[in-house]
């Protein structure tokens, strides 16, 4: 068996397992909380490990990872109504600690340490914790909304790959990601719009006969477009991050798919953008 075929098999198996775990994780609230707490910790740990390889930078990996995991737990508790807003106080104390600790560590460049520590929270922990907001947009846990964020991202990647392979000629952002094309992005967007319309049609309904999300087909397609645009930007942001560090993959924890940031890069922009979109709809 050639290495190329072997790599394809490994990628396929790990990809199928990944999708199965993600889908199963959204079907129950406690499973979703556990899954994204674990994902957050692993992603922050990976990010801070890459950052600490830079000269003159020392970020506390354990504290940053633990803080990110706690933020997801706190957001889950608050959004579900299980805990009051006071649950965020330990997280705020941790953030204060990350600042004050630099006074005593005598690092070469504390500004860099502060910046990267806070980036681990703003770039990774905060977006992942927002999945809890999406899950409770309707006032109660609704698995379909957060799951669809990832379904749209997967469809966008699939559509972009197929369309780009067949028709890709015009580079989307060659400075950062030379492999992406406008044709691929358009193809991915079209597929997501079709899937969003299908989700609107198949969505479970309430006793009044309306979808549990409260969204019509146009609003579902709007959510799909938000995920497409911001998911693409999220992919490009991580590509710029890796290009700046001079690395190909952020890690190797997922066989054939790289690291945690490689696998979840699109969602880091798509999740908070979806929160803004869904709450904008609620005020219209």
Walk me through this protein's architecture:
The chain has 284 residues and is an all-alpha fold. It is 72% helix and 3% strand. The protein is built from 12 helices and 2 strands. The longest helix has 29 residues, at 217-245.
Protein structure class:
mainly alpha
Strand portion = under 5%
Going across the biggest sheet, name each strand in turn. Answer: 1-2
Mean of pLDDT: 91
Give a concise summary:
This protein is 72% helix and 3% strand. With 284 residues, it is mainly alpha-helical. Helix 6 crosses helix 12 (267-283).
List key phrases describing it:
mainly alpha; two-stranded antiparallel sheet; 284 residues; single chain; 12 helices; globular
Present the secondary structure layout:
Layout: H1 3-26, H2 29-51, H3 61-80, H4 89-100, H5 102-105, H6 110-129, H7 131-135, H8 144-167, E1 171-173, E2 177-181, H9 182-202, H10 217-245, H11 260-264, H12 267-283
Antiparallel strand pairs: 1-2
């Amino acid at each position: 068996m050639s290495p190329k075929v072997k790599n394809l098999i490994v990628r396929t198996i790990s990809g199928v397992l990944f999708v199965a775990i993600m889908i199963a994780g959204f079907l129950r609230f406690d499973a979703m909380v556990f899954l994204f707490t674990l994902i957050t910790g692993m992603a922050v740990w990976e990010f801070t490990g890459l950052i600490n390889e830079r000269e003159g930078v020392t970020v506390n990996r354990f504290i940053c990872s633990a803080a990110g995991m706690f933020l997801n737990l706190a957001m889950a508790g608050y959004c579900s109504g299980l805990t009051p807003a006071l649950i965020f106080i330990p997280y705020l104390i941790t953030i204060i600690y990350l600042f004050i600790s630099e006074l005593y560590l005598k690092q070469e460049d504390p500004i860099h340490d502060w910046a990267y520590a806070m980036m681990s929270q703003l770039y990774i922990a905060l977006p992942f914790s927002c999945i809890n907001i999406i899950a409770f947009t309707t006032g109660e846990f609704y698995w379909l909304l957060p799951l669809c964020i990832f379904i749209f991202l997967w469809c966008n990647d699939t559509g972009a790959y197929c369309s780009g392979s067949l028709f890709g000629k015009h580079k989307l952002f060659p400075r950062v990601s030379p492999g992406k094309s406008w044709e691929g992005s358009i193809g991915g967007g079209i597929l997501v719009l079709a899937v969003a319309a299908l989700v609107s049609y198949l969505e479970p309904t309430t006793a009044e006969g309306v979808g549990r999300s409260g969204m019509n087909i146009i609003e579902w397609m709007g959510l799909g477009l938000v995920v497409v645009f911001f998911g693409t930007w999220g992919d490009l942001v991580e590509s710029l991050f890796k290009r700046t560090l001079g690395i190909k993959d952020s890690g190797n924890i997922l066989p054939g798919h790289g690291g945690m940031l490689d696998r979840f890069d699109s969602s880091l922009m798509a999740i908070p953008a979806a929160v803004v979109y869904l709450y904008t709809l609620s005020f219209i």
